[in-house]
Amino acid sequence: MVDCPNCHHSNPDGAEQCEACFTPLAATEHVASIVPPTQTPNHNLAKGQSSSGVSCPNCGSSIQPEATFCGECGERFAVQTPNLSKSQPSTIPPTIAISEKNVTPSAAEELEMTPIPDLAPLPDPEPIVNLEEEFLGVQPDPKQTSPGELEQAISEVSSSAPSTPAPNQGQATQLQLQSAKLLHVQTNNTIDLPQTLNLIHIGKPNDVIPPDIDVSGFPNSDIVSRCHANIRVEGDNYFLEDVGSSNGTYVNHVPLPTGNRHKLRAGDRFSLGKGDKVTFIFQMN
After folding, report:
1. pLDDT reported for residue 234
2. Residue where a domain terminates, one of 82, 106, 136
3. What DSSP assignment string belongs to 2-53?
4. How many domains, the chain?
């Protein structure tokens, strides 16, 4: 521990000044290193005397040489500032002189220093071209054109336009509609099948289903039932079916069962009733 020479406060070892009165303790440590520990300074010296030979100029009390004030009367002493110019080197770094030749100008300075080149004058804009007049030709103004000039312009346009050939009326396309007919073998008469019907009834007059093909005027028609057979049309196909006749229907001399139907082909022969007495041949145009 280090005792303060001013207020005798115990300070830790290595303290530079007193914790109580802030008296510098560096001189005290120096004195303590010189004086042997067995020797104790005489504090009972007469007033005005000091072991170090330094006394307070006001009250004469013994003080340390580095004391800034008297511990008895509180007299302040002038502190001499040590001259450090010779003992301690200067910590201020020397000023570095910068050569103007090595200084690089900043980007902003370069922009200010760089002269702006003169821009070439802009070319005159091209005149606006009317595309309609360029590709279609200049159309005359009806308000400023005489009737004769207008007729001449119309005739020139009509003559320059390619002429469209008129359609040949003699070569008009005609739809070839397929038609069918029945040839009565016994009388060699033909009956055209109606093209507007999808179901053609064959028989004799009756009050239930009137026939579309009436065979009552043919010889031996008494063997034909009033509702004897039907021809059903599906597109370009014709189908013969018996609808429950009394004497039956025969196709190419083969009986056609009731409810069944036979697809007719050109040249097929069918008869209504037995004995091949009312016979027809199917024909296509």
Report:
1. 93
2. 82
3. EE-TTT--EE-TT-SB-TTT--B-HHHHHHHHHS-TT----S-PPTT--TTS
4. 2
